[in-house]
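Example S7 (structure tokens).
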């Protein structure tokens, strides 16, 4: 795997990377407490084995784990997620920001 670029925003707003696995280019990003890994835009997207994307996701998760705890806390505060030492209110989920309580 070739890392083409990796950017960690100093204000803790995002982390992103562009990597190449056997000639196929993928983008990984961590914004709003959500990791996204996908194929970069191609005019004619190549076919690739499923494990390519899984490998990129595992690598990205490892890289995120290596980020300083202060950066992760600032990121969590910036996007309002549930972080270390916080408890989500009853009946809510930190992953469903657009959900509406119909109670």
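Recovered sequence:
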């Amino acid at each position: 795997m070739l890392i083409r670029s990796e950017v960690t925003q100093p204000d803790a707003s995002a982390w992103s990377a562009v990597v190449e696995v056997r000639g196929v280019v993928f983008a990984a990003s961590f914004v709003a407490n959500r990791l996204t890994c996908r194929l970069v835009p191609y005019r004619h997207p190549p076919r690739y084995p499923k494990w390519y994307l899984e490998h990129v996701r595992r690598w990205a998760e490892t890289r995120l784990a290596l980020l300083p705890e202060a950066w992760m806390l600032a990121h969590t505060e910036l996007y309002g997620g549930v972080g270390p030492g916080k408890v989500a209110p009853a009946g809510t989920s930190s992953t469903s920001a657009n959900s509406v309580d119909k109670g």
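Notes on this example. The two ends are 49 Å apart (CA to CA).
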